[in-house]
Amino acid sequence: QVQLVESGGGLVQPGGSLRLSCAASGLTLGNYYVRWFRQAPGKGLEWVSAIYAGNNITEYRGTVKGRFTISRDSAKNTVYLQMNGLKSEDTALYYCEAGRIRGQGTQVTVSS
Fold first, then answer.
1. 22 and 103 in contact (C-beta within 8 Å)?
2. DSSP class per residue in 38-102
3. Furthest-apart CA atoms within the chain: distance in Å
4. What is the pLDDT of residues 62-97, one digit of tens each?
């Protein structure tokens, strides 16, 4: 079964950190351009970050650049999103996507 499973979300105070994981089964993530998206309550889906296959070049939306880091571990067939300096506006359901496969999401809530 081809699937992506996100994990690592939770409740964190402003300024805190979380590391999200996107674990794949049935496909080799290293062969894919992998993206992270998020959707806040009442808002549309928003692209957050991406990592290219092969050269692992990374991209970020402006509001997270310098705070978030995307990376991959090919041995674990997993892509990570390290999120530092979290803000209330980062609160959302975070999804990873590879090809046409999207996971079920993991909730990130930033609140004091």
1. yes
2. EE-TTS-EEEEEEE-TTT--EEE-TTTBTTEEEEEEGGGTEEEEEE-S--GGG-EEEEEEETTEE
3. 40
4. 999 999 999 999 999 999 999 999 999 999 999 999
Chain Cα centroid distance, residue 28 = 17
pLDDT in tens, 3-52: 999 999 999 999 999 999 999 999 999 999 999 999 999 999 999 999 99
Closest CA to 109 of 93, 95, 98, 96: 93
| End-to-end Cα, the chain, rounded Å | 39
Residues in Cβ contact with 81 at an 8 Å cutoff, skipping those fewer than 6 apart: 19, 20, 22, 36, 48, 49, 68, 69, 70, 94, 96
Give the contacts of 78 (CB within 8 A, at least 6 positions apart). Answer: 21, 22, 23, 24, 29, 72
